[in-house]
Specification:
With 375 residues, the protein is an alpha+beta fold. It folds into 3 domains: 8-111, Carboxypeptidase-like, regulatory domain (Immunoglobulin-like), CATH 2.60.40; 118-232, no CATH class; 243-372, 3-Layer(aba) Sandwich (Glutaredoxin), CATH 3.40.30. It has 11 helices and 17 strands. The strands form 5 sheets. A 5-stranded mixed β-sheet has the order 14-13-12-16-17, covered by helices on one side. Strands 5-2-8-9 form a 4-stranded mixed β-sheet. A 4-stranded antiparallel β-sheet has the order 4-3-6-7. Helix 9 (306-316) links the parallel strand 13 (293-299) and strand 14 (321-323). Helix 1 packs antiparallel against helix 3 (153-180), helix 4 (187-197) runs antiparallel to helix 5 (200-208) and helix 5 packs antiparallel against helix 7 (218-232). The protein is globular and about 65 Å long. The two termini are 37 Å apart.
Length: 375
C-alpha cells in the first residue's frame, strides 16, 4: 500500500515456528545478468531474514521451508548488486509450492502466480490499483510544485484533503477484501493497518469473521492477543495508567495529569514519519499549552539510544514531558496501548477518558479548537 503519510510498523509477521513444507520462488525478469541481484526479505522465528541470488539470463530462484501459514515477504531487485532497497520491489507470500514471478523489466510490475495466497494477493493488488495510482498522481503533483507553492497553507490543506479521500477509499477496499475473503491469510496483514486508524468496535467484528484456520494461525493468535488491549484503549475508555522515567530518570505518572486534557504521543527519534509530524504537534502545543492541555511523549527508542532520543527532543523543539524505557517495540507503555505503528496518539479528557485517537496535522488543531475554541 502506498501512502504519502507513512508510519513506522513493528515489522513483517513472523513465520510460524513449525516448518511444514517447502517453497520455490522461480523468477524471470528481462535479460539481466550479474552484478544484478534479487533479495528476499522475510522474517523467521521473529527475526529479519535476508537471502540473495545473482540474476543469470534474467532468471533467479529461491528455495526454503515454509511455516504452518503463508508469510509475507519482499523481493527486491538491485541491478548493481549492492544490497536490498525499496526502489524496485514486489510483495509475495511464502507458502508451500512453486511461486512464479515474471516481468519483462521491473519487479514492481511482475506478475505473481502459482499458489493460493499469491493469486489472492494479485486480486487484492488489482483492486488497490486505483488507490495506488491516485497516490502516485498526488506525489507527482507535490513534486512538480514550486517551493513557494509547497509552503502555502492552501496547497498543503488541499493535498491533505485529497489524501484523506484516497485513504478512506483504500480502507473501503481493504474492508471489503476482508469480508469477501475470510479464509485468506492476507487479511491478517490488512487488519493491523486498518486497526491503526480505527476503533475496537470496528476491528473486532472483522477479525471474528475470519475462518478458524486463519484465526488459529500464529499471526492470527498474535492479533487476537492484541484485541483485549485495543478494547482497553477504545474511544470512551479510561486510558490505562502508566509510569515511566523521563530524560532525567524521574518517574512520570500519567495519573498525575488528571484535570487536564492530555495527548499521549507515541514516537521515536529513528521514526521518519514521526519527525515529519512533530512540527504539527509543536504548533498545536504552542497554541493551547496555556489552556488545560499538555502532552506526554512516549518514545520507542532503542536500548542504548538515550542520547539520540534527547537530541531529537531538542532539535524538534518538543518542550513537553517525555518518557521512555528505551525498549524499542518492547516498550511497556506501547504494549499497554496496543501500539504497533508510530506516530500514534491518544487524546484524554480531564477524567482520563479517551476522546480522540491518531489526531494528525489539521485534525489535532481542529479537535483542540473544538474543546478550547480558536486561538
Amino acid at each position: 500500500m502506498k501512502k504519502i503519510v507513512l508510519m513506522a510498523l513493528a515489522g513483517l509477521p513472523a513465520l510460524a515456528f513449525a516448518q511444514t513444507g517447502k517453497y520455490v520462488v522461480q523468477g524471470s525478469i528481462g535479460n539481466l545478468n550479474a552484478p544484478a541481484k534479487v533479495y528476499l526479505q522475510s522474517r523467521k522465528d521473529g527475526k529479519p531474514a535476508t537471502d540473495s541470488v545473482v540474476v543469470v539470463n534474467g532468471k533467479f530462484t529461491f528455495t526454503g521451508t515454509t511455516g504452518a501459514a503463508p508469510s509475507m515477504a519482499y523481493l527486491q531487485l538491485n541491478q548493481k548488486g549492492t544490497g536490498p532497497g525499496y526502489h524496485d520491489y514486489k510483495s509475495i507470500y511464502l507458502e508451500n509450492g512453486t511461486i512464479t514471478v515474471n516481468s519483462p523489466d521491473t519487479l514492481a510490475d511482475a506478475k505473481v502466480e502459482g499458489t493460493k495466497t499469491n493469486l489472492e494477493n494479485a486480486k487484492y493488488d488489482l483492486a488497490r490499483k486505483p488507490i495506488d495510482d491516485a497516490y502516485t498522481a498526488l506525489e507527482a503533483k507535490m513534486k512538480a510544485a514550486s517551493d513557494d507553492v509547497k509552503k502555502s497553507e492552501a496547497f498543503q490543506k488541499e493535498n491533505e484533503k485529497t489524501e484523506k479521500t484516497i485513504e478512506a477509499q483504500g480502507t473501503q477496499i481493504d474492508v471489503q477484501f476482508i469480508k469477501d475473503n475470510p479464509d485468506s491469510y492476507i487479511c491478517l496483514n490488512l487488519l493491523p493497518g486498518f486497526a491503526y486508524g480505527h476503533d475496537y468496535a470496528e476491528i473486532a467484528p472483522l477479525f471474528n469473521s475470519l475462518s478458524p484456520a486463519v484465526k488459529s494461525s500464529e499471526s492470527g493468535k498474535k492479533f487476537a492477543e492484541l484485541l483485549p488491549k485495543m478494547k482497553n484503549v477504545a474511544m470512551g475508555a479510561i486510558a490505562p495508567t502508566f509510569a515511566e522515567a523521563d530524560t532525567a530518570g524521574k518517574m512520570v505518572n500519567l495519573s498525575s495529569f488528571r484535570g487536564k486534557y492530555v495527548l499521549v504521543d507515541f514516537w521515536a527519534s529513528w521514526c521518519g514519519p514521526c519527525r515529519m509530524e512533530n512540527p504539527n504537534v509543536v504548533k498545536a502545543y504552542n497554541h493551547y499549552k496555556n489552556q488545560k492541555f499538555t502532552i506526554i511523549g512516549v518514545s520507542l527508542d532503542r536500548p542504548g539510544a538515550k542520547q539520540k532520543w534527547m537530541d531529537a527532543i531538542h532539535k524538534d523543539g518538543l518542550t513537553w514531558n517525555h518518557v521512555s524505557d528505551l525498549k524499542f517495540w518492547d516498550s511497556a507503555t506501547a504494549g499497554l496501548y496496543a501500539v504497533r505503528a508510530i506516530p500514534q496518539n491518544f487524546l484524554l479528557d480531564p477524567d482520563g477518558k479517551i476522546i480522540g485517537k491518531n489526531l494528525r496535522g489539521e485534525d489535532l488543531e481542529n479537535k483542540l479548537a473544538e474543546i478550547f475554541g480558536k486561538i
